[in-house]
Write a structure and sequence with these properties.
Chain A: It comes from Gandjariella thermophila. The complex is a heterodimer of chains A (571) and B (473). Chain A is α/β, with parallel strands linked by helices and 571 residues long. Chain B has a single domain, classed as Ribonucleotide Reductase, subunit A, CATH 1.10.620.20. Classes of the chains: A alpha/beta (571), B mainly alpha (473).
Amino acid sequence: MAVATDRETAPEVRPGGAAQVSFDAHPDGYRHWRLRLDGEIAWLVLDVDEAAGLVPGYELKLNSYDLGVDIELYDATQRLRFEHPEVCAVVVTSGKDRVFCAGANIRMLAGSPHEWKVNFCKFTNETRNAIEDATAHSGQTYLAAVNGSCAGGGYELALACERILLVDDNSSAVALPEVPLLGVLPGTGGLTRVVDKRRVRRDRADVFATRPDGIRGRTAVQWRLVDELVPPRRFHEVVRQRAVEAAANSSRPAGATGIELTPLRRAVTEHAISYDHVAAEFDRARGLVTITVRVPDEPAPSGPDAMHARGAAFWPLAMTRELDDLILRLRTNEPALGTWVIRTVGDPDTALGYEKLLTDRAGTDWLASEILHYYKRTLKRLDVTSRSLVALIEPGSAAAGMLFELALACDRQYILDGPPIDDEDSDERASITLSEANFGAFPMGNGLSRLACRFSGEDEHLAWLRGEVGRTLTPAEANELGLVTDAPDDIDWEDEIRLVVEGRAALSPDALSGMEANLRFVGPETMETKIFGRLSAWQNWIFNRPNAAGPDGALRRYGTGQKAVFDRKRV
Amino acid sequence: MPTAINYQDKIPNNVDLSGDRRLQRALEGWQPRFMNWWAEMGPALQTQDVYLRTAVSVGRDGWAHFGHVAPEEYRWGIFLAERDPDRRIAFGEHQGEPVWQQVPGEYRADLQRLIVVQGDTEPASVEQQRLLGLTAPSLYDLRNLFQVNVEEGRHLWAMVYLLHAYFGREGREEAEALLHRNSGSPDSPRILGAFNEETADWLAFYMFTYFTDRDGKYQLGTLKESAFDPLSRTCEFMLKEEAHHMFVGTTGVDRVVRRSAELIREHDTLDIGPHGGIPLEIIQKYLNFHYSVSLDLFGSETSTNAANYYTAGLKGRWQETRRKDDHRLTEDSVLLDKPTAEGTWQQEELPALLALNLDLRQEYIADCASGVKRWNKILAEHGIDFRFALPHPGFNRRVGVGAGFHVTPDGTIVDERTWEAGRSHWLPTSEDLTFVRSLMHPVYERGKIASWVAPPRNGINGKPFDYQYVHLA
């Protein structure tokens, strides 16, 4: 074809290639959302700036979104939890006429490399899960006020909300048109949430997900695709009323003052990213990142007032934000760094002191509760990160309680059984300390603690471990208790670790991603594990098949006016 | 006890209605609802009868019958143009294959959507025009208004027939929804924006029938090319009736211009308002408004949907079969003028397949220009220097590349302030509308006509202008 279309030029502009994607955002600088605060109700209004795509090559028409739009949404959900404890209900709606949201931008998807698509889907899934987390645990109930046509990822965003109100104008519909129009799946939990969360009967879900034009009106309510229809003239009023009702049931404290999420301090070089408490060093030759999380010297303050006063500088929150940002940046900007080694540095007792301040007040102090939930969500990010994760516990590490949870999130854990490598005369030794928090404060997506997952079906062993809470465990004891993969001594240590890392780098990255994802989630399935599992397995398979991504596939041909050519063999 | 409908008498048709039980069942439910809709939303003026054309067959020797009919007893019929048993698909990836007599499952949703959108416009204009009868400038015009209205009603029937006959239960539900949406309703508006604007006066009516119904003509023309043969044949027949609506618009504006020209000559001033005429600059403003709103109906210049419809064979180009290309358009490109943030127009090359709305709009613009030429000729004949002009396609647009830009009628891109400052020179102001409305007094006396419009050259169906076209109730 003589004409260069978006579709053909986009892959050259590799998203995340030339320019690093930043996840920094602030409501003052949103291009695509408006956050309006109205007492106990917040209005999140999607009004996408067509011309402000994150990467050149596509226009964000009809309130469709790309990673940039979702970065702002994530920022908004976080700020609502920390900066606005007064908000008890959040209304997600559109600022455009007759369009709620058309979902992920198809030209962006069609023009993106595979790892970009998957990473994008993963991030958007995490934000939708966070929306449900806010509704479940934070007393901030999300409502979708669907004031226009709502398709694909637009409906999936609505599905993440607790209640869906659809405007009854005889034309606005909800739809999941991915299968009929694009030859791919609704990849942001759409299918799972329709049947598992909203309990739409499976045959109806089948009809719904194969109709390009979706379902509107009474049928949408009867099938439970939406909760309620509202006439246009009463729409705003009824939406507000539902938000007020949701707010009335909120567990949010009255009269609380939020804390400001101040900009992160971050230094980025070619070989490292460092923050106040978290740092990452890259070894590109070995495809390796070493992540270090530091415990401050200063002990935890004595009471919650000081925690509130420190706000975003309070160590557990500051560290979690930095870790969160680092994970997102590494996943998006450094796809070739396939192994992450995770270390901690600092006094374990100091770390436990901070933890105790939080866990003691989790039921009574909103901020303590928010920080714990945030750390939980950040650990979940690690669980679904397609990198090999290796924990190293050395003398000087702080493998205690919530920080030991980082090691438990890894695929393997190694503890040095001996003196520090650079000081063989020292009598400092590595150790692990379990806390109550390791037994349920930070559940994985499958609803289990990482320890329960690690020792699935071994209740006696779990009980034994519980008896060890608070005791400083030696490397040999940790090994004996099954808390680590191995405990090499100081003579073997460097070689052992080098072999682990080099061996890892030699294996197929695809097979590793698949294997790790299989092994990490021992135990039952939940909606969350299904969403990620099916995204990884089915959607990624479909994304790679010629029927979707080949030159004549549905995804590539969408928008050209030409029809997809399918290989009709069922696999 | 429900009375059985005698289908052949009540509903003239060439689709074997009396032998089709499925269709009968569907229409039994729908017909009373249509009648309720007509009573509620149809013309507000009560009449005994109107001299109307009724479609009674599709043959070459007279497809219509003229006579005085009470509008509620009008026989809305179902007619498809005659079937060509050898017709083949003219374009897209099915080019050369026989046309479809049934809806292919693959295209069911798309075809249904196309028919619903088309169907939605038909009753909309009846709703928009429901009060006009109260201010008709003559019985002749009143009759034309009724004719347009009943035929829009029949076009609704035509689309409903397709929904009933080919789209099952969902089709029946969509057919009902066509009566539930209403023009300008805040809760349940018509699908397309232009059909939610009130047709406030008779000049607006003429402009609407000239510009907006002409969009309908072009849309029907593309559906006439459809591979779905019943849709093609339905639209072909509708185009026949649509021609009269164009005629009402063309001659209606002609007559207003002629009258204004006469008054200008008679009083030797362009300011003919005080003499009961409509000043030429107000006519130009009406033209600007109706033309630009109608351009929005063509949708965005680049359209994936239109491309998909074309490739699938659902909707072709205007006069597809007369075009000399491969009828697939996978290799061709076209140029589109796009406004830029710097205030210039830039040409962008894009695949022809994605620019089908632009293609259709260009055909339409050329057609509109012929009307302007006609009206200017009338001015020239009267020795008046004023000339009408179509505004730039970017002017006053809410859809497409011009949306969001401020473009003057001559195509200059300006900032919002400048544009707003010029608005009252380009679009009807509330004073203009009030003035035109002040002229709108009904003239129901046979052979008489209002001050602001000239009588037609000829009557309807060979009848004179002073014929008793309408008996008021």
